[in-house]
Each structure stands twice: as structure tokens, then as C-alpha cells.
Amino acid sequence: MKKLTLETTAPFQGLAELVADKEGLFEEQGLQIQWADREKDVDKSVDQNVTSHEGVNPFASHGKLFEQGRADMYNACEWGNYCRVQDTNKGGRQLGRRAIVCFAGLYVRPESDVFTPQQLAGKNVGAPFYFGTHYLILHMLEGFMTRDQIKLVRAPNGSKFRYDSLRAGEYEATCLTEPYASLAEKEGCRMVTSSFLHGTEVASDRVDTKTYKKFNRAVKKAVKKIQANRSSYMHYFLDYYKDKDPRIVSMDVSDLREARVVVVDPAPIPEDEAKRTAEWIKSWGMLAETEDTASLINLEVQQEAHSAAE
Amino acid sequence: MNKTEFALQGISKMKTLVLETTAPFQGLAELVANDEGLFEKEGLNIEWVDRDKGVKKETRTDITNPAELDPHSSHGKLFEQGKADMYNACEWGNYCRVQDSTVQSGRQIGRRAIVTFAGLVVRPESEVYTPQQLSGKLVGVPFYFGTHYLALHMLEGFLPREQINVCSAPNGSRHRYDSMMSGEVEATTLTEPYLTLAEKNGCRVISTAFYHGTEVASDKVDAETYAKFNRAVREAVKRINANKEKYLQYFINYHKTKDPEIGTLKASDLKASRIVVVDPAPIPDEELARTADWIKSWGMLSDTEDHNELVNMEVQHRGHAAAE
């Protein structure tokens, strides 16, 4: 068995990997997975004075243990991973897209005067800089207002914390993933806009083509199982938080929407999409030190491992 | 005075208002007010005229610009012919309709009650999972209707404008849904109950948002009449907000005779959180200015120098203040 140490992942960003792990699909492929807790000691406060990514550490949670040499691979949103790979000290490269296409929505309190995205012009929106929902907020809002009207403040990663800060009035809106999107709706909050986002895997050279191929085979099998019976996997979104949040314990799987759970076979990042994504990130003042987008990806492992896993 | 004479006297005091027809996704509160006698209580007798009769329901992949089409093809059609006193439609489209109106007094007089939910949808087998992946792909939108503008807003957050590729699709979610499912277009916009139907049938809703609509009226709708109308609508809003589940049935009942597939949906298939109704209110000045600027940036509304001219400020102000 080859041992692979992965940073911990939540269902909204790693459902297929969690299913593969629980159902012995990695073992079937000769992989033994160890999970390393990337969330220990992560700052969960809101900081109204931090209004952009500048000065924020892209490795605050995702990639933290990887950069310390204590994990071989992690998955996170694609945008954030472009930035993390640019700044890596461990030779980390993206190997391809993860299985889940993550749902997230921008929410306001029940009593908010905001009903449409346009009405967030000039209002504080809590964003976890370098995490998927930060970039998604930018994408979603810039369709409805000019960039100078978008006002972000630093919010923690983890929807639970952002939701609590939203309810406490620390900002006007924030972006939530499941099961907190559903919890927010259950408690009367309003979603003003929503979308889906891709994530990728970043790995060290310990994850060679052969290993990643095995990993992908297991994940593909999990994807197949989830797609065949999505309802039987919805409980993952609740179980994951059962010791952490009584509000989630009080929810039932019928409170969640299956249509929000989208999993696909892991796949290479299409070249044209990689280029467009990098250009857009640069337009927001990130990724300035990257001249060649292709350098952010281990193209050899990506190409060979995905084709071999088919 | 006997009962009949009393009733006749009551009717004679009623003011008749002719409205263009509206569906629940855009006019739930007005439909509830009508069904529950709230307009009558305010002394208003509502007559509905069918704006969708004779409207062409075809997708035209060769029409990629709204300039080729009539903004009054459905909303505002009967109003422009003098056959309706008022209509409600999306705010963006109404700016354009008011600009091009031949009814001299035709102006917006405020925002309607429902804040409409809509989404951008792809077939189950589509390779598109995120809005970015619609780059260059054909998206069917009903030009001048709310989801046309919403699609532009949603897509331009994810794509440069030159990568947004829209074509004309009919108003009415059923027709756009069919067009998307048949592969005529890669994606389209849908409202309820068709969003729910699409999800039930395995389609993916890759982006969603809410949008406002407004009312456009002729001078037959003075401040006093509009205040009465608004009072009735506000009471409907109160009732809907107190028991949203009860009113979800409207979204099924409205369509089920014309569309048996909608008849297979249950109210519990629909999400109450997608139904947002608020008291009708004036269009805020700064939102009016920003909205007009954005519409102009897409090459529409070019004959309007002063966006304030698109609103009857007096009726808007007095009609809402008096309804409070």
C-alpha cells in the first residue's frame, strides 16, 4: 500500500474523496489515505480593516500543512490554487480538477434591505480571501456592478463562521456553501445570487502519475456511486458537522437540495480555461509573478494520470 | 334601497383598471390580491387582458441583438394599443419600453411586489458546469424580458462581453426550456416553476439571481388609484409572507391546464425561499441612475438623455406614500 497524506476536506469541496475513503475505494487501489487537519489554529475572526487579498497568507488553511511538508496533496478552489502554486516553497503543482463542482450562494439576513446583487453596491461583503467563495463573490458581483462598487472585508474560511458573522451584522452579505446555504435559507436568510465553482488538486512530486492514476480511479468510482444515488450521500453534508454545530444536527437531508450536489470525473484543466482563469485573477491584482499559466500545472502528470484512469 | 340597488351603486363607485396578464413569477401578489378580493375592497375592479395572444414562440439563433426586435412584443403590447391601463414587467425592459412608448403619459410608477428568481440552465448532458464555461456558447434569452438582462448581468461577471453569445428565445419559460432541451441553445434562463421542473429532470442551474420589476401606467392611473392598488398589493404581500407554502400552489395552478408536465409537480417540489415579495416601492434614485447607465452600456436606451423621464415621479411618490 502506498501511503498518501491529504489535507482534510469538507463534503462541499471533497464529497467524492470522502466517499472513496469511507467505502474503501482508495484501499482497493492500493492507497492508504491519512488525513492531516489543516484547520487547527486557523484564525476565524472578521477583520473590517482588511479589504483585499494584499497581505493575506494564501496558505492560511489550504496548503498550510503541504508547505510544511506534512501533506502530499490538497484540494481547494482553482483560483486560489493558481495563487498558492505561484507562491509554493515545496514545488507544488496542480494535477487536475477535483470531482465536485461546488455550489455557493451570496446571502443576506432576513431583515436586510438587499434583494438583488446590484443592491450590494458599496456594502460590505465578507469574503475569505484566497478561498473559493472570495473569487466567486468577485465574479458574481462584477456582473452587477462596477469593480469600485464592490466592497469586501476579510471573513474567515468555513461557512459556519461566516454565517455567524452575517447574523451578527458584521457585514451585509457573505457567500455560503452547503450545508450552511440551506441552514441560512431555513432560518429566513435570502440568497441573492448563486453559482458553481471548480477546484483542483495540488500535489508534491510524491504524487507521481501512477499514484494519481490510482487516486483518480477511486474517486471516479465514488463519483459513479454518488451519481447513481445522490440522495443516499446527502447525509455526508450533515454528518461532517454533527459534533461541531447543533444547528446542523437539527437539519434533515430533506432540507438540502440534491441539485446543488454536482460531481464529475476528475479531469485535466482545459488549456483555454486555464488561460482565461489566470488572466482574470491577474486583473484583480493577484498572480502577478506568473508569466506562464502552464507553469502552474504539472502537465505531464495531469495528462498521463487522467488518461490512464479512464 | 334594496340589496340589488345597493350592489349596483357599489359597482358604479368602483374604478375599473385594465391590466395586462401576469404570471405568478412576476405578479404573484397581484394575482393573490385579485383572487382574495383585495382590489375590490379598495374600490378597484380589475380586468385582465391577454398580452400573450398571438406572440411568436420561436427561438431565432440568427437574431443576436435586441435592436432587431420590438420591446412591446408582449409586455406593453395592449397598453400601446390603448387596450390596457397598466402592466408590470422587469425594470430593465420597462426603461426601454417607456423610452419607445407611443402612449404619451406612459411612465413607470414604481416597483412591483415580487422580486423574481431566475436561473441559467443547461441540459443534464451538457459539458457546462460553471458560467465561465458558457464562453462563446449560444445562450437563448428573451430580448427585452427580464431574464435577457439578468443573463447579461450573470454572464458578464464571469466572461468578457465579447465571449457572451446570446440569441433570441421566446418569452415564457416553457418554450425556452424546450429549446434548451432540444439542443437549439446550450443554455437558457428559466423562472419558476420551470426551474424546479428542469432540476427535477436532471438539468443543472449554473447561476441564479433575483431581479426587480416595475409597473408602467398611463394617466388613467393617478396617484389615488395607484395608492388603492398598492394597498391591496401590500395586503397580499403580508398574506403571502405569513404563509408562503400556501401560495406556492399558484405556480402550479397557473400553468397546469396548458402544461400537463407542470401538473405533475407538487407545491412541495418548489422552494419557498425562491419566492420573495416585498411592499411595492419607488425606484431609488441612485439605482435608477445606475440601471440606466448599465442598459446604455449594452447599446440600448440610447434615445434617453435623462433617466428621470422614464418615471412619473409624482404618481410614484404620492401613490406609494398614500399606501403606507
Structural notes for this entry:
- The complex is a heterodimer of chains A (310) and B (324).
- Chain A is α/β, with parallel strands linked by helices and 310 residues long.
- Chain A folds into two domains: 2-43 and 58-101 and 198-309, D-Maltodextrin-Binding Protein, domain 2 (3-Layer(aba) Sandwich); 102-197, D-Maltodextrin-Binding Protein, domain 2 (3-Layer(aba) Sandwich), CATH 3.40.190.10.
- Helices cover 35% and strands 19% of the residues of chain A.
- Chain A is built from twelve helices and eleven strands.
- Chain A has helices at residues 11-22, 25-28, 64-67, 78-87, 132-142, 159-167, 180-186, 209-228, 235-239, 246-249, 271-283, 299-309; strands at residues 2-7, 31-36, 73-77, 93-97, 100-108, 124-127, 151-154, 173-176, 190-197, 199-203, 262-263.
- In chain A, strands 5, 6, 7, 8, 9 and 11 form a six-stranded mixed beta sheet that branches.
- The longest helix of chain A has 20 residues, at 209-228.
- Chain A is globular, with a radius of gyration of 19 Å.
- Chain B is an alpha/beta fold and 324 residues long.
- Chain B folds into two domains: 3-59 and 70-114 and 213-258 and 282-321, D-Maltodextrin-Binding Protein, domain 2; 117-211, D-Maltodextrin-Binding Protein, domain 2 (3-Layer(aba) Sandwich).
- Chain B is built from 14 helices and eleven strands.
- In chain B, strands 5, 6, 7, 8, 9 and 11 form a six-stranded mixed beta sheet that branches. In chain B, strands 3-10-4 form a three-stranded antiparallel beta sheet.
- In chain B, strand 6, helix 6 and strand 7 form a beta-alpha-beta unit.
- In chain B, helix 2 (24-35) packs across helix 9 and helix 9 packs across helix 14 (313-321).
- The longest helix of chain B has 20 residues, at 223-242.
- The model of chain B has no long low-confidence stretch (mean pLDDT 95).
